[in-house]
Amino acid sequence: MSLLSLTSKLGSMSSILDMAEAVNYRFMVNFYGGGGNPLDMRFQSVSGISSTVEVDEVREGGENLYMHNLPTRVSHENLVLTRGMIIGCAMNKSGRDVLHSLKVKPSDIQVSPLDKNDMPTYGGWLFQNAWLVSWTIEDLSGEDNNLIINSMEFTYNRLKHVVT
């Protein structure tokens, strides 16, 4: 397909460029109900943006030749946020509250892709009623001169794709 026919189907050349900006790897993480510290918005990587419909197999009555898959519920992988360790940020305190005294305070977390000007390109993903279940520090080595990397893993009730 030529570029001309592609642009006539999609609109203008600027709309094609706008779509291309949505595939870069800048993103922002917002914690709702948690204070809004700018240090708690930047992460090296995000994983676990995944939902799966679980099914039950049911045999057809009479003739047992056929199986039917019926949806039962939606399950999610845990959301994993990874970054260099930051001393004195609010995430450290809320992590200690959960891991040391089991004070769980669920909140919503939104992951939003950013364009080249660090502006949201579209809504992103909203993880509802999320709370910390794991805090991991990468292996330490006396031979490397690297940052200490920590990963935070959150469970959540529902994943919504947010469109703005």
Task: Give an account of the 3D structure.
The chain is of the alpha+beta class and 164 residues long. The protein has a domain at 23-48 and 77-162: Hcp1-like (Pnp Oxidase, Chain A, Roll). It is built from three helices and nine strands, in the order ααβββββαββββ. It has helices at 3-10, 13-21, 90-101; strands at 26-32, 45-47, 51-59, 67-76, 79-84, 107-114, 124-137, 149-155, 158-162. Strands 1, 2, 5, 6, 7, 8 and 9 form a seven-stranded antiparallel beta sheet that branches. It is elongated.
Give the gist of this structure.
This protein is of the alpha+beta class.
Question: What brief labels describe this structure?
Answer:
Pnp Oxidase, Chain A, Phage_T4_Gp19, alpha+beta, structural molecule activity, seven-stranded antiparallel beta sheet, CHP02241, elongated, two-stranded antiparallel ribbon, 9 strands, 164 residues
Estimated radius of gyration: 21 Å
Q: Could you list the spans in which at least 5 consecutive residues all have pLDDT below 50?
A: 1-24
Number of distinct beta strands: 9
Strand content: 35-45%
Order of helices and strands: HHEEEEEHEEEE
- Find the CATH topology of the domain at 23-48 and 77-162: Pnp Oxidase, Chain A
Main sheet summary: 7 strands, antiparallel
Cα end-to-end separation: 30 Å
User: What is the 3D form?
Assistant: elongated
Helix proportion: 10-25%
Tally the helices: 3
Mean pLDDT: 79
Q: State the fourth-level CATH superfamily of the domain at 23-48 and 77-162.
A: Hcp1-like
